[in-house]
Amino acid sequence: MKDSAISVANLLVRLESHYGPQEPSWPVDPYEFLFWWHCGYPASDDRCARGWASLKKAIGVQPERILSASQAQLAAALKPGGMVPELRATRLQQIAQRVVNECGGNLDSLFTGPIAAVRKALKGFPNIADPGVDRILLFTHKAPVAAVPSNCPHVLVRIVLGLERENYGVNYREAQQLIESEVPEQFHARQRAFLLLKAHGQTICKSKPQCGRCPLQSDCAYAAGVTRGGRPPNS
């Protein structure tokens, strides 16, 4: 990777000064996270939080409660979280059934093997791909992986490299490599990086970035390209 005007450590300090210390707004228990992830659609922290609160109040999140509830009951509980509540209800029952059948009702048993096996098992759950696995491993203190916020992997790539890739997977891997090379392999450090990048990606560095009010504008390679009169080329 090419040299940049700002280090990852420096940009995180400045983001924390701007946004303040961040805390996860989702359950860090792996079982609960799998349910929370399906409580809102299109997925967002706010929609998932609304669906999660409604589900806990109306039905509960224990496997036996999810499996004993009817599809109509689950869909009604999930409706505050947004669209396709019926499909999301089906997903919750699929998750609960697998936890009961394959994990004896306790998802903790899934984390006893090698990380590669754990990753494969987690990706067997509905709508959980590598970014979701990374977040689960990091925030459940299972492995201090370089997790990148799934809805804004472009943030680090823009700031440090001055461009974002058209391919989501390439953006994610390049952001992950930056974290791996510059953020200590520690749970707190990498959770902090994830949360601050997520806050920035959701607030300012969106798909259409608001560079004019960005606290990193003076040192952002992407903003420098925009200032010169053209968006940095995708590649």
What does this structure look like?
- It contains twelve helices and no strands.
- It has helices at 8-19, 30-36, 45-58, 63-68, 71-78, 85-103, 115-122, 130-139, 154-161, 168-182, 187-203, 221-227.
- Helix 1 crosses helix 11 (187-203), helix 3 crosses helix 5 (71-78) and helix 5 packs across helix 6.
- The longest helix has 19 residues, at 85-103.
- The protein starts with 7 loop residues before the first helix and ends in an 8-residue tail after the last helix.
Biggest sheet features? none
Care to count the β-strands?
0
Distance between the termini: 14 Å
Order of helices and strands: HHHHHHHHHHHH
Content-based structural category: mainly alpha
Task: Give the amount of beta strand, in percent.
Answer: under 5%
Assign an overall shape.
globular
The Rg value, from CA coordinates, equals 19 Å
Overall mean confidence score, pLDDT: 92
Low-confidence stretches: none
- Fraction in helix: 55-70%
Number of helices: 12
Give a short synopsis of this structure.
The protein is mainly α and 235 residues long. Helices cover 56% and strands 0% of the residues.
List the SSEs and their pairings.
Layout: H1 8-19, H2 30-36, H3 45-58, H4 63-68, H5 71-78, H6 85-103, H7 115-122, H8 130-139, H9 154-161, H10 168-182, H11 187-203, H12 221-227
Helix pairs in contact: 1-11, 3-5, 5-6, 9-10
